[in-house]
Amino acid sequence: MSASSEPVKDSDILDRKESASDYTDTEASKYDTSKAAAVWTKVDFFVLPVVTLIYFLSSLDRSNIGNARIAGLQKELKMTDDQVGALASHMLLLLEHVGTYTLIDIPSNLVLKAIGPRWMVPTMVILWGITCTLQGIVHNYAGLVVARLFLGLFEGGLLPAISLYLSSFYPRRQLQLRIAIMFSATSMASAFSGLLAAAILKMQGVGNKPGWAWLFILEGLFTVLFGVSCYWLLPNTPTALSFLNKEERQFVLHALHEDGIISGDEKDETYTKDNFIRTFLQPHVILVMIIGFMNGSTLSGLAYFLPSIVAGLGYSGTHAQLMSVPPFAVSAVLSVVTAFFADRFGQRGLNIIFFATIAMIGFSIFYASFVDHVRYGSLFLLVPGTYCIGPPLGTWMANNSAPLIRRATALALLPVMTNLGSILSTWLLGAISPAPRYTSATITLLVFQIAIILCAALNIAWLARENRRKARERAAVGVEHHHSIVGEDNSSIWFEYVL
Fold first, then answer.
1. Which of 97, 235, 286, 363 has the fewest CB atoms below 10 angstroms from its CB?
2. What global pTM score does this model have?
3. What share of the chain is helix, strand, coil (3-state, %, to 5)?
């Protein structure tokens, strides 16, 4: 059974004379905690698996080039040592992130509402799946570079798009858990990619193709097939949740409207150039962007270089690959568990400060110790501490940006900054800091964690001050004048920031 066949028309769900805005608090109160939880679980069941698998395939298709290199990609394409060494890897990453990933993020989110996620997201999946498949037939280094550029072009807008998508389905204080579950796909991909590659590479010589070619072809073809299925599996908007009955759909829309969230198929007169520009000038957006740059640099560095770091700690070959998996596995579990409590208490900033502190301790141990086992143990602090900042950071940006165009723009700006940070990490852990100590990189990333703590604390203070100011202004206006915040921007006195 698909989550949604044809999009359900508004007339089939809500008579506009009996819209979600007419769904009274008395009717909403019929949904006690357990009944409400059951409704959100039904939404989770049809939305989260599809989104998580999309992000899993994105991570898998982007990172499989590392497995292909080990399997003979360099020799087959007659690539020189310089091309696969420091300069080539850094420049390729630079071209991918600046030339495609970074530049596509904002435009993709701005057109998402016009096209609709049910059409735009599956199309992106299909296009990058085709590109991944074509990497299996390249014959030289230039062809590989072109393929990677197109991979970034088609895949670059995915993270901001699905973050915006999820933020349109869940109330603000239920969002981090869902983003954490989706984000855990990256660690699952890291753990699964090596095992999958080991199996596919046994096809060496089949069809007169090398094993690394089959790695790209098979993973890419599966992505294409799943992308096609997403045209039916991916619900377009909350009003298109055909597996909910009318009363449940009204409850979901009422909960979203209480948080000022507009469904993608509802009229939105706030989609203006002025609201777009104002996004860049908001202090809390700027602070989260700065955190995103520093966290992106740390996270990307660990994602690309952790096997090399582990290899420098006395492990080698397959053993080094396997020993790099446990820290990411711990990260995925810890991220989901802490997200549950962060949603319950409505805290994002403290969540970020907590994990940045853990990462800071981990980097301090890694820098100070000369014992390999101790330094490996520090990875269980610095990897989860770094990885687990991503979900609350994205959620924080989404929670405090309104109306929809500001949220779309802000959620696109965040991966722009993390991508720029990832470029720095390739230089830090590559050319600048030699293995196995990585001294300069460790010091820089340690300082980044301290700066993240300071920026998060400053953002909490600013948001708390704004909430106090708004409370005073609401008191002056009077409670009887309270009105819906649907369509209001986050500067409205009725909009309360999430700390």
1. 286
2. 0.84
3. 80, 0, 20
